[in-house]
Design a protein that fits this description.
By secondary structure, this protein is an alpha/beta fold. About 40% of the residues lie in helices and about 15% in strands. It has helices spanning about 5-10, 15-30, 35-45, 75-80, 125-135, 155-165, 190-205, 220-235, 255-260, 270-285, 300-310, 320-325, 325-340, 345-350; strands spanning about 50-55, 55-60, 65, 85-90, 105-110, 115, 140-145, 175, 210-215, 235-240, 265, 290-295, 310-315. It has an eight-stranded parallel β-barrel with strand order 3-4-7-8-9-10-12-13, surrounded by five helices. Strands 5-6-11 form a three-stranded antiparallel sheet. A two-stranded antiparallel sheet has the order 1-2. The protein has 14 helices and 13 strands. Strand 7 (about 140-145), helix 6 and strand 8 form a beta-alpha-beta unit. The structure holds flavin mononucleotide (FMN). Flavin mononucleotide (FMN) binds near residues 118, 120 and 243.
């Protein structure tokens, strides 16, 4: 069944239920290595211009699945078979936690957006590590790390460290998430001193490239500060951005938004700010720090804007929910056209070329 027909059915279900049903359908359809190989042949765009190397890792294409879609790494092989260049799982925390009470995820179709306050619901690092150890990992895997809700902010470093030490052997790269709005106090770890301290603690034990994921709600000065600290401390890249808590300018009626309650908004409303931040970080670091651009990417033109603004890789989440399983293929196909039209032989030549 095509996603055009399936989507109206999924969208009749509560958003989180639809997410589980969609993931289960995908996992069912792509449950065997043979089915996944066939899917990859059909979905992946193989084009030399799309290949890129970051941190010594060879990415087949720059379009990844963003963190939070597969929090525990349950469906990562099936997701990878859809033609994503890489899959980021997590956020994983040291301890298992149930997340916030349901409902905690909502669609805002008028805004091409989602609102969520999941609160890092998932098994802890140990259970995720055990699952990963039993799997043959097919896609390039990023693991996104966060702080357990029960751990006081003052002990955050140990909490991240614990997850990192347990999980890093499975990851091609790691992301330090200090930007989710749904764990009380987490975003304070973006402040100068705690950020420096956290990065230093992690670097003392990291064996994988370590990226920093920042919020779209930072001011320009805060973005500059976080970028400078990241560069000083030897971070391998910046993931920009997470969801936003800003709510003005939305089409969804205020009453409806209020009824949904707190949470981070993703999709089209984050797009402009995420793009600005990508451009800002690229300029500030003169392209020295690879950037993963994420926020409201639904199509190839938007992915291309991120690349031209300085993103070396991009990720999607909300655009995947609205666009369905062919989205990574469509975006990659469109990127090839952009590259050819612009006379770029390789993606790297296009990174930051729009500034
Ligand atoms: C339901 C939901 C859950 C998410 N969970 C996480 C998470 O656990 N960790 C994280 O770093 N980002 C999480 N995100 C943020 C996405 O990874 C991404 O940064 C953000 O949604 C912007 O991209 P998009 O507009 O393509 O959705 C989540 C997003 C959504 C919609």
């Amino acid at each position: 069944m095509s996603y055009r027909l399936l989507r109206p059915l999924l969208f009749r279900l509560p958003a989180e239920t639809a997410h589980h049903v969609g993931s289960a359908l995908l996992a069912g359809a792509l449950g065997t290595a043979a089915a996944r190989a066939a899917a990859r042949r059909a979905m992946a765009i193989q084009h030399p211009a799309l290949r890129c190397e970051r941190w010594g890792i060879q990415f087949p294409n720059p379009v990844g699945l963003a963190a939070g879609f597969d929090k525990a790494g349950t469906h990562l092989n099936a997701l990878g078979a859809l033609g994503f260049g890489f899959v980021e799982i997590g956020t994983v925390t040291a301890f298992a936690q149930p997340g916030n009470a349901r409902p905690r995820m909502f669609r805002l179709p008028a805004d091409q957006a989602l609102l969520n306050r999941m609160g890092f619901n998932k098994p802890g690092a140990e259970a995720v590590a055990r699952r990963l150890a039993q799997s043959q990992l097919e896609p390039i895997l990023g693991i996104n790390l966060g702080k357990s809700k029960a751990t006081p902010l003052a002990d955050a470093d140990d909490d991240y460290l614990r997850s990192m030490e347990r999980l890093q052997e499975f990851a091609a790269y790691l992301v330090v998430n200090v930007s989710s709005p749904n764990t009380p106090g987490l975003r304070q770890l973006q402040d100068a001193e705690p950020l420096r301290q956290l990065l230093r603690a992690l670097f003392s034990k990291a064996t994988r490239p370590l990226l920093l994921k920042i919020a779209p709600d930072l001011t320009d000065d805060q973005v500059d500060q976080a970028t400078d600290i990241a560069a000083d401390e030897g971070v391998s890249g910046i993931v920009a951005t997470n969801t936003t808590t800003v709510r003005h300018g939305l089409r969804t009626p205020v009453k409806r938004l209020e009824a949904f309650g707190a949470g981070g908004i993703s999709g089209a409303p984050v797009h402009r700010r995420a793009l600005e931040i990508v451009a800002r970080v690229h300029r500030r670091t003169q392209g020295a720090l690879p950037i993963v651009g994420v926020g409201g990417i639904f199509d190839a033109d938007q992915a291309w804007s991120f690349i031209r603004a300085g993103a070396s890789l991009v990720q999607i989440w909300t655009g995947f929910v609205y666009g369905g399983p062919l989205t990574p293929r469509r975006i990659n196909q469109g990127l090839v056209e952009h590259l050819e039209r612009g006379g770029f032989r390789r993606l790297d030549e296009a990174v930051g070329s729009g500034l």
